[in-house]
Amino acid sequence: MALDRWIAFVILCVALAYGYAAFFTMDGLLPPFMQRNPIWPSTFPKILSVLAVLTALVILLGLEKPEEDKDGVGDIDYRKLGQYNLAHALLLLALMVAYALLLRPAGFLFSTFGFLTVGAVILGERKLHILLPVAAIASFAVWYLVDQVLGIFLRPWPFFI
């Protein structure tokens, strides 16, 4: 089996466990006034788990490949992993960990702006005059929607401000 199908199998297992938690364990401790709401805290995890399971199944069953590519020419070869550009993938993983660790002390706006900016540079974006305003607007828009519209508090600034 190709590497992409093994990865899809691992994602399928994680998505099934996540879906089990979302469908059967998250709503048990809801207070009575929230049980009458049309949208519960588990609504997004339920949707996310169903979409992840469907996507993993599409990859696992090979439905995304055209008929002429069924011979395996376009598959990822795990024996040639050194030839792929793994540095960017590992840098992005390290950046995600750094983002998660800096979210509280640096604040949402600074850490999200930094994550979007550095992530885009790692992926090859060189037009900083476009990247910086887009990252700033996206960071502020997400913070505004979550904090002001949804009412979920996100510390926007670092802890010392």
Write a structural description.
This is Putative tricarboxylic transport membrane protein. InterPro entries: DUF1468. Helix 3 packs antiparallel against helix 4 (108-122). The protein is flat and about 50 Å long. The chain contains 5 helices and no strands. The termini are far apart. It is 61% helix and 0% strand. The chain has helices spanning 3-25, 43-60, 86-106, 108-122, 128-149. It folds into 2 domains: 1-61; 83-149, no CATH class. The model has no long low-confidence stretch (mean pLDDT 85). With 161 residues, the protein is an all-alpha fold.
Low-confidence stretches: none
Largest sheet: none
**Rounded average pLDDT:** 85
Amount of beta strand: under 5%
Number of separate helices: 5
Shape: flat
Topology, number of strands: 0
Task: Give the tally of structural domains.
Answer: 2
End-to-end separation in angstroms reads 53 Å
Helix percentage range: 55-70%
Structural class: mainly alpha
SSE run: HHHHH
Alpha carbon gyration radius: 20 Å
Per-chain topology:
Elements: H1 3-25, H2 43-60, H3 86-106, H4 108-122, H5 128-149
InterPro entries: DUF1468
Transmembrane segments: 45-63, 84-102, 108-124, 131-154
Organism: Shimia isoporae
What attributes characterize this protein structure?
about 160 residues, 5 helices, about 0% strand, membrane, transmembrane, Putative tricarboxylic transport membrane protein
